[in-house]
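Running co-folding for adenosine-5'-triphosphate.
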Amino acid sequence: MDKEKPLNSADMAIRAENLTKHYGRFTAVKGITFSIKKQEIVGMLGQNGAGKTTTIRLLTGLFPLLQGSTVEILGIDIEKEPVRCKSLLGIVPEMNNAFLDFTVFQNLSFSGRLYGMSKAAIERRGRSLLAQFGLADRVNSLTKALSKGLKQRLNFCMALMHDPPVLILDEPCGGLDPISVKLLREQILQLRSLGKTIVLTTHDMQEAQRICDRVMIIHKGSLLIDESLETVRARLGGAKKITCKLDRDPPAGLESALGAGPRYDGPELMVNGSSCQVITREPLASMSNLHDFFHKTSTVVNDVRMEETSLEDVYCQLIEKEGSKND
Ligand code: ATP
């Protein structure tokens, strides 16, 4: 965990303590605690079923908190002042939440009225958001006639109608085409520059790496890491990734030839069929070991590449290590 800078409460947008959720006898979220600074974009990562959506539901008051759990949004306790707290949140859920038989503007109007906005304010804010999200010409379209990407833009507009300072986005760009993804990414960055705090879940490591200031990795209901992107990268400080594509699955003995395995700081080997990846802080030594091993075993190398390590590499390494602990 990134403990270097404790947050003081004035800097804090979200404080969550001991979040826990049981579905029957199964514990989906196991006492997660974290704080999120104002104006940060935080990416919540984790495998399918890790507990991200459940965590978000606890954070946004959709699930009641168990005794001993706390959520504060901008210092306000969600259990003591749920209405005030929810007015500080804009939520884009995993599934479309617009009414399909309403027009685009009727959906915006509905969201605005939920937050007590006047007709004039709804008109002004609604038109401005539709222009910002490229939906101005769809104002009177029926929502069911919109493509998935356009529906998602509408979901953003609905979440932003009451101009909340904190946004919670559950897989905001999941399953969208590259142009829609680009537009929504730009909007997320723009919203941060306007002072919003943004928490988003995603499976897209490149997206997280591009836009997040901080990442949280949830694994089997627990928080595995909660660190700034810089700290995450420093975990692999100076490490390089070597990818080799072979003519067959690598012969036995590659791991020991590389000196990979449990040795602290040693190279890490990942094999996927005939492709193998080595993350190493000693790239020249690893290259030489790979060369000698493939030569000795008469393995043909069709392609070899050396690159900087990425968030995805850190993520895969951590999840694999966690997996092997349980084996
Ligand atoms: P994904 O990336 O697939 O959306 P997630 O990280 O958001 O996954 P959750 O949806 O929070 O994960 O689910 C966490 C765990 O809780 C999973 O094992 C899931 O099967 C289980 N779960 C979720 N909702 C329910 C429910 N209503 N009843 C029982 N189990 C549930």
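Result summary
Residues 238-308 form a domain with the Alpha-Beta Plaits fold (CATH 3.30.70.260).
Residues 178-193 form the longest helix (16 residues).
Job closed.
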